[in-house]
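Worked problem 6 (solution included).
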Amino acid sequence: MKLGLLTAPFPDTALGEVADWARSAGFEALEIACWPKTSGASRRYAGTSHIDVDISAAEAKDIAAGLAGKGLAVSGLGFYPNPLHPDRTHREAVIDHLKKVIVLASRMGVSLVNTFCGGDASKHVDANWEDAQKVWPAIIAHAREHGVKLAFENCPMIFSYDEWPGGHNIAYSPYIWRRILEAWGGDVGMNFDPSHLVWQMIDKERFIREFGKNMLHVHAKDLMIDHDGLYERGILSAGIGWQVPRMPGLGDIDWSRIFSGLYRAGYDGPVIIEHEDRRFEGTDEKVKRGFLLARDVLRPFIK
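Solution. The predicted structure is:
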């Protein structure tokens, strides 16, 4: 295993500087945020572009070589849009960019692109699955042609009312994951984030037992249930007002049990800290402090 971080919380810092700090802090890998340069932050933790997807093959190789020279692996390139968005223009734009990220990964010698399956929040999950079967085969074929695998994060993407009621990503529950793997298992795996199981009340250890062999990448993020918020809003609010992302070690996850499950499942890939904790935001120093706290919590499990 290698411990690393997702670069998204450093939108105004050049990749080289992020890499230098990460290596000096003892991290071994980066997941590089690759949103479109002109997109801006359409939501929190999105919009960071640490590599221009339109660079040449030679430039892509140079970036990869530079990171390797610093002692850093690239766990994957990250772009998390909504490829099933109901607005066709938006959908086509994000799919076009996702395909460019896939090409960039291939040029860099990076075998994995992390993303979302997507979802139309106004439709139920089964209707969204029908759309996914129409949209995704061409993207998957494109990735296969470039020697790249795709990892869908198991995040429902329902944090705000614009994502209500169905969320913007259907790849969050066991019964949809069985469909995904049956349809595309040779080309698509999971970017596993245990925090998303906490508020859904999905058994985390059972989930790892069932899907551990299909996990290509792991996000380390914790989550705390605000029980006062849950009391006020109830479970039908789908987490809004009571799911609180935290740095690993500050939420409700028992990381010893997560790593026990991952090791038993044979997972030996990257563990990438995803920073979404509002208590460690506002300045680069606070962001770094959050990463360092998470590092010290997770390091004993990663050998």
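Discussion: The radius of gyration is 18 Å.
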